[in-house]
Design a protein that fits this description.
This protein is α/β, with parallel strands linked by helices. The protein folds into 2 domains: 115 residues, Rossmann fold, CATH 3.40.50.720; 106 residues, Alpha-Beta Plaits (2-Layer Sandwich), CATH 3.30.70.1450. It is built from 9 helices and 11 strands. The protein has a 6-stranded parallel β-sheet with strand order 3-2-1-4-5-6, sandwiched between helices. The chain has a 5-stranded antiparallel β-sheet with strand order 7-8-11-9-10. It is elongated, with a radius of gyration of 22 Å. 28% of the residues are buried. This is TrkA family potassium uptake protein.
Length: 228
Amino acid sequence: MKYIVLGLGHFGKSLAIHLTQMGHEVIAADLKLSIVEQLKDRITHTVCLDTTDREAVKSLPLKDANAVIVAIGEDEGASLLTTALLKQLQVKRIIGRVVSELQKTVMEAMEISEYIMPEEEAAERLALRLDNIDIVDSFKVSDQYSIIETKVPSKYVGKTLKEANLTNIFKVIVLTTIQISEIQEQGRSRAHKEASGIATSDTLLAEGDILVLFGELSNINRLIQKGE
């Protein structure tokens, strides 16, 4: 697939590099030539241009892109101008980065339905981890449901999912389990995570493994507390 990423700050740079590593064709643009030059070997294509300049943006293959991501975060004015310009040029899929409630309101007024708030999402995930030390990571699916990574509670170590009966007792679904191991890389050890595949009734819950759970946060917290 082909993606265009506009703005190569920390977020835009990381996004463009990851998409390139996944095998997608990525065109990444930024106003600063030094940043463009620095990333030219890590992203499919990099270009230096002003994303608020209509003619410059029109030179990009907008119609061929599966999505155009406005990753500008530091300059809200430039971000909104760029988004408005893409809307005028009838780009079929625009994804915007939002850093404030005002910007979110303006985006919604422009009928941009896809936007991300990376700072807010990261803060919420960290807050959950700080609130409960057994939560390893989290992803909010909706206002009601979340996907949570948590250590296998000691009460269930050595049991299969059928024996633990977590879905019936706590109204949560175990998506998979993750094994943690240490590997050596360039003289340093780092944690390596490997999922066991889609969980079944025969999946064994081992000490030190991570459960990947789907459900309401209150039910997941109840499972963690009861399983200690």
